[in-house]
Amino acid sequence: MSGATSNLLQLWQIPSTCLLFGRSKLPKGSYLVPKMIRNPVPCFYKCMQSTSYEAVVHGSYVPSPEANQKSEVKEKASNVPESIGAFQKLPMVMPSVDILHSAMRKAKRVSPTKGIANVAKRERNRGAKQLDALMKELAIPLRTYQENFPNKKYLHPYERSLVELTLGDGNYEEVLGKVDALRKKVVSVGKEHASICAKSLSKREAEDRLSEGMKKLEEIFHREGKAVDELLNIAKILRAMPVVDLETPTLCLVGAPNVGKSSLVRLLSTGKPEICNYPFTTRGILMGHITISYQNFQVTDTPGLLRRRDEDRNNLEKLTLAVLSHLPTAVLYVHDLSGECGTSPSDQFIIYKEMKERFSYHLWLDVLSKCDLLQESPVVFITEDVNSDDYELAKYRKMGPDGALRVSVKSEVGLDELKSRVHELLASQFVKIQSKSNQENLEVHG
Ligand SMILES: Nc1nc2c(ncn2[C@@H]2O[C@H](COP(=O)(O)OP(=O)(O)OP(=O)(O)O)[C@@H](O)[C@H]2O)c(=O)[nH]1
Ligand SMILES: [Mg+2]
Which stretches make up the Nucleolar GTP-binding protein 1 Rossman-fold domain (predicted)? Predict the structure, then answer.
């Protein structure tokens, strides 16, 4: 297979910093805008704006009813559940300093309306227009992000799990919320200062009001623009996640930690996942692509599963469950009965039974890894008084589940058989995907 096998590996991991996102990169509660500052514009200012400042600048950022309708349509359109691939469509986020510098530059170039002879009038017109321009230049990118980062609840369940597990529960929404709060503040403070500037009585006053307003907006953006940088970081993390194609047959390697999953992924594809003799070496989902006989397949390596309740699982284990729960994948379940991996055979048996029961609808292949360390010919002793659970476990300790294939990466035992069984499994997976999509087509077209 190796000759005909091409491989492209993509790995996304949960680095310890990401697992602790809430505590390190995105400290929970930091950069939060105090409530008082968030809504600083008393409503009488709003009335003033519509009479003086907006008349001065010939236009406003207040969305017209038409614009409101458009955004409602957009909101409705984005309610359609997304298929996989939303992360690749995320907008490019500009660093907050770049947004600020570009906005300042553009605003300063705005000239007063032509034909105003009176110096004071011209200056206040210029000031109000520049502040309005600055406010818009700052707010528009933020609105674009708000509109183009999908609402988490409309993501494919697999991608929703990834957002929660890699960024930390609630962080995605929290950061988007902070960006929106910043936008609202920029709009209200910008309008407030443009309005004040528009009422200046002298050239000097208009200049002072302009520079005050610019300084205020700059300060706000400097202080709270971190939310934009957090969003940029989120986009980077999400965009880097491997693209999963739901139409391509996938093989997912599952098992307890340290049982040899990554070693087998290396063997089945030409990818190079990290291999170490300690649990949780694999800290994310690794996606490998293999081609067998001109057919493309996906292989995912997953973090190991421990014997414990779902509530107690770490985010790495939850990632594995997300793959099994939400992706149409065949399972290559790896058992290590050599006593080397750190999870006892009886615990592995319990984890296995739970997974098999939960995900019995997946196509499935069991392997016993590290068979170079196992006894040559397993013998099962059955005594009269043993109950069926003990018998099952005793049998598992010796031979693993029925039909399990014995393999060793070290001594290369069983590898050819494994490759051909994997090929068969993926071919069946292909047929399964095809028949499902044919059925869906039939349902759609009558
Ligand atoms: N003797 C022997 N050791 C093996 C074999 N396969 C893997 N190992 C060793 O087992 C250890 C764990 O292998 P990995 O492939 O990293 O196991 P894993 O299941 O991916 O581990 P996690 O990612 O931590 O869950 C490494 O030290 C490997 O060298 C084998 O066939 N024989
Ligand atoms: Mg691994």
Answer: 316-372
